[in-house]
Amino acid sequence: MIEDGMILVDKPAGITSFGVVARVRRVLSQQIGKKAKVGHTGTLDPFATGLMIIVTGKECRNASSYSKLDKEYEATITLGFDSTTGDPEGELTPVSDAQPTKEAVEAALKQFTGEITQRPPIFSAIKINGRRAYDLARKGEVVEMPERQVTVYALELIEYTYPEIKIRIHVSSGTYIRTIAQDVGKVLGTGGYCSELRRTKVGEWSVVGALAIAVN
Questions:
Q1: What pLDDT score does 171 carry?
Q2: CA gap 171, 181 in Å, rounded
Q3: What values do phi and psi take at 9, rounded to 5?
Q4: Span 155-204, pLDDT tens digits
Q5: How far is residue 90's CA from residue 107's CA, in Å, rounded to a whole number?
Q6: Rounded distance between C-alpha atoms, residue 96 and residue 81, angstroms
Q7: Catalytic residue among 4, 10, 45, 97
Q8: Which of 54, 59, 81 is nearest to 5 (CA)?
Q9: Which of the four pLDDT bands, split at 50, 70 and 90, describes residue 116?
Q10: Residue 57 neighbours by CB distance under 10 Å
Q11: Are 63 and 49 in contact (CB under 8 A)?
């Protein structure tokens, strides 16, 4: 690891982004013999895996430039249920056991390419009046999330075997894949949530060859 620079990490499922930062800080601090300055350039949900760009030392001042880069993901949308968080960690509610055709799925996905408007999930790190939305949501407070314009540059259907839709997606910074999963479920009338999510690229950087870390 380097004292001033960036580290590509392949985050495993079951750990928070802050947990990844803490582990990198601990190892780097041991290597340089003092407390290291370490930060991330964009969070991944605990259930998600894949590329995180970790910045260290003087490079921390450039963290925001990395966070604004486009991102690519591979995701699985599970139909038939809604989730309070848009992912497997939320409370699941059955919606419909209808099984859409592949043609219907492809038509639904086409609605989410180009510039789209989406409403971020309430369980997100977005600040509302200076407070994290997920903190407000956990306290049971009513949170009105503002809509935002995002860009989906490409959305490819990898495989569809009901109830799972596997996709590859290239998006602008600030796009929530959980929201796209929920919106696809609404279009199909079945409900849907993002059951698996892996970030494969951030800008020009790929998860291939990134540093793997263990959950424990």
A1: 98
A2: 14
A3: -120, 135
A4: 999 999 999 999 999 999 989 999 999 999 999 999 999 999 999 999 99
A5: 27
A6: 7
A7: 45
A8: 59
A9: very high
A10: 17
A11: no
% of the chain residues with pLDDT over 70: 88
pLDDT of 132: 55
State which amino acid sits at residue 146.
P
- For residue 41, give the nearest of 13, 62, 27 by alpha carbon: 62
**Helix or strand run (H / E) with residue 184:** helix 177-188
Q: Which domains does the chain have, with CATH numbers?
A: 5-68+203-212 (no CATH), 71-202 (3.30.2350.10)
Tokens of 147: 């809509």
Q: Are 176 and 121 in contact (CB under 8 A)?
A: yes
For residues 170 and 16, what is the distance between their CA atoms, to the nearest angstrom? 23
Confidence of residue 128 (pLDDT cuts 50, 70, 90): low
Active site residue 87: no
Q: What's the CA gap between 18 and 170, in Å, rounded?
A: 24
CA 40 to chain centre: 14
123, 134 contact by CB (below 8 A): yes
Q: Are strands 5-11 and 49-56 parallel, antiparallel or unpaired?
A: antiparallel
Instruction: Extract the tokens encoding 55.
Output: 């910045």
Distance CA 130, CA 169 (A): 31
Distance CA 102, CA 89 (A): 27
Per-residue confidence (pLDDT) for residue 134, from 0 to 100? 57
